[in-house]
Specification:
The structure holds 2 protein chains of 2 kinds. Chain A has helices at about 15-25, 65-75, 85-95, 150-160, 210-220, and strands at about 1-5, 25-30, 45, 80-85, 100-105, 110-120, 135-140, 145-150, 165, 180, 190. Chain A is α/β, with parallel strands linked by helices. Chain A has a single domain (about 1-220), classed as Class I glutamine amidotransferase (GATase) domain (Rossmann fold). A 9-stranded mixed beta sheet of chain A has the order 2-1-3-4-11-10-9-6-7, with helices on both faces. Chain A has a two-stranded antiparallel sheet with strand order 5-8. In chain A, strand 1, helix 1 (about 15-25) and strand 2 (about 25-30) form a beta-alpha-beta unit. Chain B has 3 domains: about 10-50 and about 195-370, PurM-like C-terminal domain (Phosphoribosyl-aminoimidazole Synthetase, Chain A, domain 2, Alpha-Beta Complex); about 65-190 and about 435-550, PurM-like, N-terminal domain (60s Ribosomal Protein L30, Chain: A); about 565-720, PurM-like C-terminal domain (Phosphoribosyl-aminoimidazole Synthetase, Chain A, domain 2), CATH 3.90.650. Chain B is built from 25 helices and 28 strands. The relative contact order of chain B is 0.13. Chains A and B meet through helix 1 and strand 6 of A and helix 8 and helix 10 of B.
Chain lengths: ~220, ~725
């Protein structure tokens, strides 16, 4: 199975995400932001954490205009799988693949710590390895992780069971405690916490592994 | 543009003494041009020339079989086996951080990261040691917030995990905070890059961000002539751009892979001047620069400004001309400037041309090698009066503990390190909080441990013992996670070296540091000196920060367990109850009297070896330092979320700061095995209590762990945030 990880000049979790995909059994290629096409036969695209183009403007806003993002959007529109983590989530909201936006943390400070997430649905290729209601420990590391969407959109996300994860103890002011959401076809996940940083014993926790493993199983049998 | 005439005011405003100017006249055989004067002042200032400290720095042990490159290059390099090495250094950015905390701290982080990746190493860990004035001082809160945000803002974007550091408060830093930034990187030993140029007629290439007027001579701002000609004044603190730094790092490492790099040097203090002179001097060559080819961010920049600019995120490289196209392609890929700005020449000249006009023509080797060196007068620090029996206070143990953990000096530092990305790169095995941080060497079973330590109170009372203690504490912190200490970087922050008492502190501290790194086999491989840390004649506490790196070899388990219900508390080392200059006296009794604790380097070595050799039985360990047994026991209990009972009740036993000690939590079987091993090794090992329950009970006094934990976790933010 093939995964592609997008590399913006300011990506800094690209290797981490690639390692997590590899450990789950994917064949991973890195894709440069100036490329306008994804490699042939890619099953899933990973949009990693970091500071894509410096993020001196709204996080992810410039990245959303990059050549590779046009290809990522086309891939998603064709029904392809995509996972955006942290800055990758911000980028996916900026491209419109996922609704809403990520604002500055309510406390105005950058926060890096492991938080408890509640698995809000197991009905997706990313969360099938969990049970709804499971509490998992996953690190966050962001300055702009305060998820916001208008009331209609939030209601729609909830009605369609598209909230993937919520914070047990909301660290950043996200509306409805939302930490991660799914696209309408449930094939795109954007989340602020970093499952790739809880993916092997050495990380002090492996609660993130299921995101990649479940994905591998499902993509492989799809 | 007419350059200002050289007057005695102009010379003075460049920080050059009359004697130093006479030396310039002697070297040149003529009056220097304005640009040449600027170049001399850049090369001869304390920061670049180490003119007050060099004599003493030479006395430090810098060699060992593990050392690949000692002081003198951008960073030190130490072998970690399997063809890999760790490249590290610590450097201060004190004055800029006091003037503009966010950017001062941010560019301090940027500078040290550049030092590391210039040598071909990808940064894998950062730390920072911060010293601020008393919390109640009107500047302190603003400085703490700005510095912490600046460190985080730069490092988080760049993408290097922060694994440790220190934050301290003392009135002596009210007018002069300290920001010491550490970075370490990983490289293959056969792919290290140095600064010495080689080959004649080789292109000199400018890489990275464009040159602006930021950082140009604060010294020259004072001269009227300069005011009349400069378009606008700029702050002397540079502005950092971590996104550009990240790209510069990636591009530089990629460029090194092409084989195009003959030598490379980052542009730090005094930018283009220092880097070009360094590369030429080390290679025994001259350098010619054409300044019109330098990528410029602002219009009408003069030769003087370009040579002295400290714009960030820039590098200078000597290029293999046959690979120019490949090299240029890498920088185009990363959207960074790549410009050939000069060449190496055979003659011993530093020749600066601007639009064909000679702006400076200096003998390069002499410029590099003839910086003044001073043997500053010094007086030994008078021996501190030891505490007498009557001076030793008594306090209820829980009250003493609360006094410590409610002070921002000893409260938990979550508020600080949660603003830093501590887990990026996916190899963090132990985050900041208690003792050393640990990073896995990517793709291997090895780990590297990092710590930064110094107890300035001790150094002030007794520079030699204080210097030893800083190294010994670093040694213990590395040991407590099961790492073998490898080598050290020192960041020596002191007051005005022209005062014999201050110079005496410096000399004493270096003596202690030298003795300790020799005895504990952790040579100094890099470092930085920051002098003149004074405001209104008041010097800071002497603060020689020790950054140290240790290795957990493949197949060895790190010691990173947590205390559990039923664990026995074992103390390694001898307890004499030394309370002089202790944290308890300072924080609870507002006293800074007595002598620093003595450091027995043989005992340090013996007890450290004991911990490492018995890792089969030691799964939970911390070193004892500030706050002694009481604070160490509380910290282990707090981290493990379990209560603790310590049998002793007397103040010196609980809060004394005797050195060479560790606290271990283990089960009965492990304790038994350790008792046997200790007897054989001649190490003192005593049972001091046990872990369990949900209270902290010391002697006859107790409090719920939850209550103490709340104090520990909230006091820092409550005091300074």
């Amino acid at each position: 199975m093939k995964a592609a990880v997008v590399v913006f000049p300011g990506s800094n979790c690209d290797r981490d995400l690639a390692v997590a995909f590899e450990q789950a059994g994917f064949d991973v290629s890195m894709v440069w932001h100036k490329d306008s096409a994804l490699p042939e036969g890619v099953d899933i695209v990973g949009v990693p954490g970091g500071f894509s183009y410096g993020d001196y403007l709204r996080c992810g806003a410039i990245a959303a205009q990059s050549p590779i993002c046009k290809a990522v959007v086309e891939h998603a529109n064709r029904g392809g799988y995509a996972l955006g983590v942290c800055n990758g989530f911000q980028v996916l909201t900026e491209t419109g693949v996922l609704p809403g936006a990520l604002l500055r943390n309510a406390g105005l400070k950058y926060i890096c710590r492991t938080v408890d997430l509640k698995v809000a649905t197991s009905d997706s290729v990313f969360t099938e390895g969990y049970n709804a209601g499971d509490v998992i420990g996953i690190p966050i590391a962001h300055h702009d992780g305060n998820y916001f969407a208008d009331a209609d959109t939030v209601a729609q996300l909830q009605d369609q069971d598209r909230v993937a994860f919520t914070y047990a103890d909301n660290p950043n002011g996200s509306i409805a405690d939302i930490a991660g959401i799914l696209s309408e076809n449930r094939k795109v996940l954007g989340m602020m916490p970093h499952p790739e940083r809880a993916a092997d014993e050495g990380h002090g926790g492996t609660d993130g592994v299921a995101v990649f493993r479940a994905l591998m199983g499902i993509v492989a049998t799809a | 543009m007419q350059e200002p005439a050289i007057t005695s005011e102009l010379i003075e405003s460049h920080g050059l003494s009359p004697a130093e100017y006479d030396r310039i006249l002697e070297i040149m055989g003529r009056v220097p041009t304005y640009t040449e004067l600027g170049i001399f002042s850049a090369m001869w200032n304390e920061h670049c020339s180490y003119k007050s400290s060099k004599k003493w720095l030479r006395t430090l042990p810098t060699e060992g079989p593990q050392v690949i490159c000692g002081p003198g290059e951008n960073a030190g390099i130490v072998d970690i086996g399997d063809g890999q090495c760790v490249v590290f250094k610590m450097e201060s950015h004190n004055h800029p951080s006091y003037i503009e905390p966010y950017q001062g701290a941010a560019t301090g982080v940027g500078g040290i990261l550049r030092d590391v990746f210039t040598m071909g190493a990808r940064p894998i860990a950062a730390m920072n040691s911060l010293s601020f004035g008393e919390p109640a001082h009107h500047k302190t809160t603003q400085l703490v917030n700005g510095v912490v945000e600046g460190v985080g803002g730069y490092g988080n974007c760049f993408g290097v995990p922060c694994v440790g550091g220190e934050v301290r408060f003392h009135p002596a830093y009210n007018g002069n905070c300290l920001v010491n930034a550490f970075a370490a990187g990983l490289a293959d030993t056969d792919k290290i890059f140095y600064s010495a140029a080689s080959g004649i007629g080789m292109p000199v290439v400018y890489l990275g961000a464009k040159t602006g007027r930021d950082g140009v001579g604060g010294a020259t701002m004072a001269s009227a002539e300069f005011d009349d000609t400069i378009e606008e004044k700029r702050p002397t603190v540079q502005v950092g751009d971590p996104f550009t730094e990240k790209r510069l790092m990636e591009a530089t490492l990629e460029l090194m892979g092409t084989g195009a790099v003959i030598s490379i040097q980052d542009m730090g203090a005094a930018g283009l001047t220092c880097s070009a002179v360094e590369m030429g001097d080390k290679g025994g060559l001259g350098v010619k620069l054409n300044l019109e080819d330098v990528p410029q961010r602002e219009e009408n920049m003069t030769a003087y400004e370009m040579m002295l600019s400290e714009s960030q995120e820039r590098m200078l490289m000597v290029l293999n001309p046959e690979l120019e196209a490949e090299a240029r392609a890498v920088f185009v890929k990363w959207d960074l400037d790549f410009a050939i700005v000069g060449e190496t020449i055979a003659e011993d000249r530093f020749l600066i041309l601007h639009n064909g006009e000679v702006k400076a023509d200096l003998p390069l080797a002499t410029l590099a090698g003839s910086a003044p060196e001073y043997d500053r007068p010094w007086v030994p620090t008078p021996a501190a009066e030891p505490l007498t029996d009557a001076d030793v206070p008594t306090i209820d143990p829980i009250d003493g503990l609360k006094g410590l953990i409610s002070s921002p000096n000893y409260a938990g530092k979550q508020w600080v390190y949660e603003q830093y990305d501590t887990t990026v790169m996916g190899d963090t095995a132990r985050r900041p909080g208690v003792g050393s941080g640990l990073i896995r060497v990517h793709g291997t079973e090895k780990m590297l441990a990092f710590t930064s330590d110094v107890t300035p109170r001790y150094v002030k009372a007794n520079p030699t013992e204080g210097g030893k203690q800083a190294v010994a504490e670093a040694y213990r912190n590395l040991t407590a996670v099961g790492a073998k200490p490898l080598a050290t970087t020192d960041n020596l922050n002191f007051g005005n070296p022209e005062k014999p008492e201050i110079m005496g502190q410096f000399v004493g501290a270096l003596d202690g540091i030298g003795q300790a790194v020799a005895a504990l086999d952790m040579p100094i491989v890099s470092g930085n000196v920051s002098l003149y840390n004074e405001t209104d004649g008041q010097g800071i506490l002497p603060t020689p920060t020790i950054g140290a790196v240790g290795l957990v070899a493949a197949g060895e388990e790190p010691i990173i367990g947590e205390a559990r219900d039923g664990h026995v508390a074992l103390l390694i080392g001898d307890t004499l109850g030394h309370l002089g200059q202790s944290a308890l006296l300072a924080e609870v009794f507002n006293r800074e009297d007595g002598d620093a604790p003595a450091v027995d380097l043989d005992a340090e070595k013996r007890n450290g070896d004991f911990v490492r050799n018995n890792r089969d039985y030691i799964k939970v360990c911390t070193d004892l330092s500030d706050g002694g047994l009481a604070l160490a026991a509380f910290e282990l209990a707090e981290a493990g979320g379990v209560g603790v009972q310590i049998d002793a009740s007397d103040t010196p036993t609980l809060f004394g700061e005797d050195q060479a000690r560790y606290l271990v939590a283990c089960n009965f079987d492990q304790a038994e095995a350790l008792m046997l091993a200790a007897g054989q090794a001649g190490v003192t090992l005593t049972t001091v209590g046990k872990f369990g329950g949900d209270t902290v009970k010391i002697g006859g006094s107790e409090a719920p762990l939850a209550e103490l934990s709340e104090i520990f976790r909230s006091s820092f933010a409550a005091t300074v945030a």
